[in-house]
Amino acid sequence: xxxxxxxxxxxxxxxxxxxxxxxxxxxxxxxxxxxxxxxxxxxxxxxxxxxxxxxxxxxxxxxxxxxxxxxxxxxxxxxxxxxxxxxxxxxxxxxxxxxxxxxxxxxxxxxxxxxxxxxxxxxxxxxxxxxxxxxxxxxxxxxxxxxxxxxxxxxxxxxxx
Length: 161
Known about the structure:
- With 161 residues, the protein is α+β, with helices and mostly antiparallel strands.
- 30% of the residues lie in helices and 24% in strands.
- A hairpin with a 3-residue loop joins strand 3 and strand 4 (40-42).
- Helix 1 runs parallel beside helix 4.
């Protein structure tokens, strides 16, 4: 973010699965997109490609920020699996989290709103991509466990998964 303090706003998160990959599998590629008041960052459209192994990357993203969201940690960097796409999170004393990607500002958001945005996106991914994975899929099991743990840690519920 810039040196000035930004008022918290809304943030949007999406985890679209890339089409045309054949049979669904644990290492299917997708993208992470994050949009806020200050800008938008997306793993798609870069050279080299920054697509991520979507289910595994989202499971890791759900596991990683719990200490940040609960106030036990001030900063966090998340890099997608199989990618160089990175999101950086920094929490302030008032419970506001600024989101950037390689110094590109996305915006500031209250902790609760960030958690809601992430859970909303996991619900959409559950409907779009997860439902086609086999029940015995390791990525599916990891993803579902990460969503449950994230919900429990943040005290939030969401649809999907």
